[in-house]
Amino acid sequence: xxxxxxxxxxxxxxxxxxxxxxxxxxxxxxxxxxxxxxxxxxxxxxxxxxxxxxxxxxxxxxxxxxxxxxxxxxxxxxxxxxxxxxxxxxxxxxxxxxxxxxxxxxxxxxxxxxxxxxxxxxxxxxxxxxxxxxxxxxxxxxxxxxxxxxxxxxxxxxxxxxxxxxxxxxxxxxxxxxxxxxxxxxxxxxxxxxxxxxxxxxxxxxxxxxxxxxxxxxxxxxxxxxxxxxxxxxxxxxxxxxxxxxxxxxxxxxxxxxxxxxxxxxxxxxxxxxxxxxxxxxxxxxxxxxxxxxxxxxxxxxxxxxxxxxxxxxxxxxxxxxxxxxxxxxxxxxxxxxxxxxxxxxxxxxxxxxxxxxxxxxxxxxxxxxxxxxxxxxxxxxxxxxxxxxxxxxxxxxxxxxxxxxxxxxxxxxxxxxxxxxxxxxxxxxxxxxxxxxxxxxxxxxxxxxxxxxxxxxxxxxxxxxxxxxxxxxxxxxxxxxxxxxx
Length: 487
Known about the structure:
- This protein is mainly α.
- Helices cover 83% and strands 0% of the residues.
- Helix 13 (256-272) crosses helix 16.
């Protein structure tokens, strides 16, 4: 009986389609479910702290985020890939990656304490840096443990850890803000939850999945891991400059209120990008195996299906979001945040390239070709910094949004061009029908908004219309998704 319940709960399956579906469902639980849980404290904090207090917290988070580059140069991704490829060596791979990560964290801590103050332009944010450093380090250890779960395709353990950590953030956050509605207390809550998540994930690994951990360290694996990982670091650098530099540069030229409002805009767009993250993480182990056996036909089929599915979700989010931006910001964060509507309308268009970048990055990494793309994030980062420098002083939040959209499009194009050199595939499968349905839906959304119906009701009605139109048009991608879900 217990075995039967376990089989149903953890979707035990030996088929590729079943495994992908199991991974997607558990990742969906961990990513979507946990973000919905975490959104409770995000919304409450934005309202309790106000635009200025939330701006201080967001600025400190962005400033600290620059050191993600130093704390994790791609070791997590290498661990996932190699454990999936070489399950017999998983203990050696994990132990070596763990101690390598400890060394990187020591460097990160040093830089955070001694370099960050030199770049800080908002004095109130400086006191948060030591607390957020603890959060950053604990989060990194948790992410390393989660990378191991992904490698052995136990996404159910990832779901448990991520959801539990975000529940802890909500509980600790509400308690902290009730004691004192200040950015410092919110930072303390985040750090405490990160430490809890790291201990939980570590406990699962050490008690269930590894034996002889301390004697499994293999120094001969250090060089291969670093050799494969360092190009990924440049991809991480691009992500930092694409999403963190905007907040920091806004802090240079604009007020903390502007920073707070723009941070709220980024939160909404960031939540939407969970979709490609789920798809990418669910399919990466399979991509690694297909690339390893050089199954070109299957890889091409999977790539085209993934791109089509992502565009099917991206089109209505972007077009519908431009209409509902002001209403969403006011409903979620409060009327003071409605001033970010125009910035949100622009930033939403970054969803298209961001969706594609996640898939392209996984594709390239599965073929171990990431070293040949190290120039791309550098180009994208320089474009983003340059455009922010030119546009933020004049246009504020809108300028920051324009810079992000332009640089992410350039990065996605360069990645796409390189992917096509590895395997030929089409980028436009199902494009026409999806675009038609999205445009009709957007017009409907705008008309509903004129009637002053509640924004949530508008979203529900618009989404229903969109998928109804796709069904009428017999969109193959929608039929494929429904067929997988049914099976």
